[in-house]
Amino acid sequence: MSFFNKLKSRLFKSSDRIEKGLDELMADGEPEEIAPPEVPAPPAETPPARPVETPPAPPAETPSPAPETPPPPPAELPEDPRPAPGPDAAPPPPSPARPEP
């Protein structure tokens, strides 16, 4: 329990210090006299500035589309040197059951 009491007291001390520091900073930052903001006099009428002419941009070159190349033909598979396996032979049908004499 003493650990938590110590922690609590340190937190309160540091927060008190912060509060005092903030109060001092606020007191230092207060201006003595607030001066009204200066409003500049309206400028005398002047003719609008002539826009600077920019030369026209050259036409943008569009790249020509890449020629379409057909996909390469599929590679021919080499023939298998082994013959294809034949169909599996089905077992002979069972013979009919004979009655015992």
From TrEMBL:
Residues 25-35 have a biased composition (Acidic residues). This is Fused signal recognition particle receptor. Residues 37-76, 83-101 have a biased composition (Pro residues). It comes from the Bacteria. Residues 15-101 are annotated as: Disordered. Keywords: Receptor.
